[in-house]
Design goal:
The complex is a heterodimer of chains A (274) and B (293). Chain A is α/β, with parallel strands linked by helices and 274 residues long. In chain A, 34% of the residues lie in helices and 21% in strands. Chain A has two domains: 50-96 and 174-274, 3-Layer(aba) Sandwich (Rossmann fold); 108-171, no CATH class. In chain A, helix 2 (113-123) crosses helix 3 and helix 6 packs across helix 7. The radius of gyration of chain A is 19 Å and the shape is globular. Classes of the chains: A alpha/beta (274), B mainly alpha (293). Chains A and B meet through strand 5, helix 2, helix 4 and helix 5 of A and helix 1, helix 8, helix 9 and helix 11 of B.
Amino acid sequence: MSIDARRVTPLEPVPGASARTGTDAPAGPAIQISEVSKSFGRGDGALLALDQISLTVAPGEFVTLIGASGCGKSTLLNLVAGLDQPTAGEVSAGGRQVALMFQESALFPWLSAARNIEMPMRAAGVPRAQRRERVAELLDIVHLSAFAGKQPHQLSGGMRQRVALARALAQDAEVLLMDEPFGALDAMTRDLLHEVLEGIWRRRQLTILFVTHEVREAVRLGDRVVLLSSRPGRVIGEFPVEFGRPRGMDDTKTVELAIKIKARLREEVVRHGS
Amino acid sequence: MAADTSATPPPEAAIAGLDNLDAVPRQAKGRFWAKAWSASWPKLLALGLALAIWQLIHLSGYKSQILPGPAQTLPDLWNQLHHALLWQAVGITLRRALIGFALALVIGLVVGGLVSRIKPLRAGVGSLITALQTLPSIVWVPFGIILFGANTTAILFVIVMTAAPAIANGLIAGADYLPPLLLRAGKTMGLRRLSLYRHLIMPATLPAFVTGLKQGWAFGWHGLIAGEVVVIILGQPSLGVLLSNDQDQSDMAGAISIIIVILAIGIVVDMLFNVVNGRIRRRWGVAEGASNG
């Protein structure tokens, strides 16, 4: 099948970490967002962040979300992660384990890279020997085996994001939510992390919902680019990315589609100018 | 898959290259003695300067009848160091300090923990605790004596009243500055209640807490000596009592000797706190001013 077949190392399901059994994924969409609205505050001062958003993400799909400021991207991810409740509508990940990554690595500064990756497994009560084995494996996946003992402040931004990625994978999650994870990185590091992420996504058959404000990044990574309006956030466009992978940020096809999406995005921003 | 065999090399090599370029070079670790020397020579210099200024004042003849120079005082200190009385006093004072500080620690932890968790308390009691910290420690001495009598309990009370607010404040400050993003990250990875405290909130608040401990110790030490100078218990010589005796006998050399002992103990304890603090800060990456995303 894939040239990567040799490197496929399906991890044992972790007892207690999730309800996952074997390789059989639960049936139905990986993420189902139905008519979801979310407002903050009450009465006249209430701010409607999301307005009847509906979005379905299939298992194994890579969906990128894009929008101008105030489109409620982060709010939406919080809802899917279960950190917050919608005001109306329903959000479901079908009982799948969900992991969340942010623009900042949010690593615990007092722990080494390896101990940070270990943390979700400690929270889940995975036995020590098994934890150690999986940490080594995850460090290898993000190419950081040589930096296992380093503290976060000794690592570069890109390395910290890879530790955060490994930590998210340590949750044994099938659904990965990413909130502008590469937004603060330099272009070269970001391009390389795109390749790393794409490889992990493919090998582990993850479902990814990826928020970004960089249109070309959205096209580079997504099977589908979903465009959100601002204040309140609504889905105003979907752009399937029909050409194959691997793609580059500067490929002609990527740029062409990005220009199309940017034009639509601009219309949306102009609407707020009047 | 045909698309996979394109010319793009795997990212590993480039990543390894970038990582090696990004890695913070290992700083050469000096030998223990070299480090100890570089840390202590400025202090020795300052000590020498202080002695020189003292000697100059003595030579200038200012109150020379009353104010002895180092040449008179240091032998007095040396003598006292050879007497059991001073060591007995140091022992009693330190024991009170430890007991009082332990009590303050427990009370500070309970109060700080409650105030940082309960919002209405945070608004009201929080500012009250800060106000308490501005009170000079000596004001608690009459209060303690009236409440408990002129005994050890009164002295311990003074320590608690001065040290506990600082300790509680350290805990509250730590909880206040807990980055919300870390809390969000902790919750998504499944940390709940007890495990959230154990693995996230406690270690995250540790630097602020240790700062509070250090401050609490300093305040408590002030309160303790103030209390001891006033509360004199028969058969229990303490540093405060020795100081008070020297005052009664107008023995300035003796008084300065005791002040030096009190100062030395304060400096040693402060150094211990600094070692702990430095270790934590280095580990957290605060010491180098490194930002952590």
